[in-house]
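User: Hi! I'm working on a homework problem where we have to compare a predicted structure to a textbook description. Could you give me the structure for the chain below?
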Amino acid sequence: MKKLLLLFVTIIATISTTAYSQQQLPPVAVDSTSYSAINTPDCDTIYIPQEAIEQLGDTPTIFVLSKGEEFYRNKYVQMTYVGVPLVITGVLSQQYVANKFYDLRNAYAPTYHCPIDDYLQYAPGVVAIIMKACGVQSRSSWGRMIVSDAFSVAIMAAVTNGLKYSVGTLRPDGSTYNSFPSGHTATAFTAAHILHKEYGELSPWISVGGYTVATFVGVSRILNNRHWISDVLAGAGIGILSTELGYFFADLIFKEKGLYDFATPDFSIPERPSQLGITMGLQFPLQAIELGNGQRLISVTGSRMGLEGAWYINSNWGIGGSAAVATLPTILESRPEEPLSIDAATVAVGAYGSLPLGENSRFRMSGKALAGCNFMANSNIIPNVMKADAAGFYYELGISFSFLAQRHFGANIFCDYGGHTFTATHTASPEYGIYRTGRHHYMMHNLTAGITTSILF
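Assistant: Happy to help. Predicted C-alpha cells:
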C-alpha cells in the first residue's frame, strides 16, 4: 500500500550510499624539497608543522577534515539527513501518535478554522522569486533556478498525489480518503527549501524565515482539522527531499554553468549552544488520582507540544524556559465508558546545563531544572462533580541528547520528568460513586519523551 513511498525513500538512500562510497578527495602534490614532511599519525586529524604553514604564503589554504566532519559535510548526506527521518517518522507515527496529537488539537482549538494556509504555502517561493527579480544574487542563474525549481515541484507533486490516492488515509474531519501526506505542507517545505538553497548562504535567517512559515502551514493544517500530524511530518520530508532531488538533477544537467556559489555553507560548531525550538512528545502519567471510597481517576498516554529556548552565558551554563500545552485522556474507574481529560498549559523558567560529547563534537548532553505555573485548560475534570482551580505550581527536570546539523539548525531527543499541583472542589455524586466534598489538593507526575527541532543563535 505504501510501495510508492518506499520506492521514493529507497531512491534517495541509493543515491546517497552510492555517491558517498565513490567520493574521493583530489590528490594534493607536495614538493618535498620545499616543504617539511607532513606528520600523519594514525587518527582522524592530520597535523602540519608550523614551518610548512609559513612557506605556503599566499597560496590557497587547505583544510583537512576529520572523518566525522567529512561525513557531515558530504553533499549526499546533506541531501538526506533531514528529509528521510521526517518521512520515516511520518509513516511510523500514523497508527498511534497521530491520534494523540489529534486529542491535543481538540482540547485547545476544537473550532479553529482559518484558510491562511491556502496562501502561505507559496510564500517562501514567492519571496525567492521577488529577491531574484530585485537583483539579489542567488546560488543559480535564472535559467538554472527555473529548471531546478521545476524538477522540485514536479517530483513533489508526483510523490504527494501518488501517495494520497494509493495509501487512502481518511482525513480527521472525515471528508475524504486522501489525507496522507499533506500537500499544503509538502508545497510549503518545497518552497522554503528552494529559498534556502538559493539564499541560505547569503544569510541563515532567510532560511529560518522560510522554514518558520512552512512550519506554520503544517501546524495550521492540523488546527484546521484537515490533517493528522503524521501527514504533516511526511509532507515536510517529501518537500525537502523533492527539492534536493530537483537540484541534484539540475546540477547533473548544468554542471558548473550558471552556478554562483558565493559562500561556503557554515557547518562550524558554535561556542555557546543557545537555541529556540518547537517541542513535541508523548506524555506518560505516573500515577492515578485517588478520589476516596475506592474511586480513582486513571489517565493514559497523552501528548504535549510547545516552545522552549535557552540563552547560554558560556559553553556549559544558561538560563531559559518553556511554554507548552498538554492533554491526558482520563477515565473514572467506575465509569470507563465516559471519556474525560486533564488538559493543562505550563510556563516555566530555570537553569540549563550542556556538555559536548568530545572535542569539537556535534553531539551534546544537556540538562535542565525549571519551575513555574500550571494552568488548567479544562477545569471541569468531572462535570458537576470535580472542578479544578485555574492555576497551580509546576516543576520540570529533564535531560536531552542534541545533534548540531548546521551552524543554525539542530535537533534534540529529550526526556522530561515533571509535576504540577492543582486544587479541586468536589460535590458528592452517588451517580458516580463519589462522596468526597470540599476542596482537595492533588499532585500529578508525568514523564514526557519526544523531539525538539531548534534554531541556534
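For your comparison, note the following. Residues 3-12+74-254 form one domain. Residues 185 and 218 are 5 Å apart (CA to CA). Good luck with the assignment!
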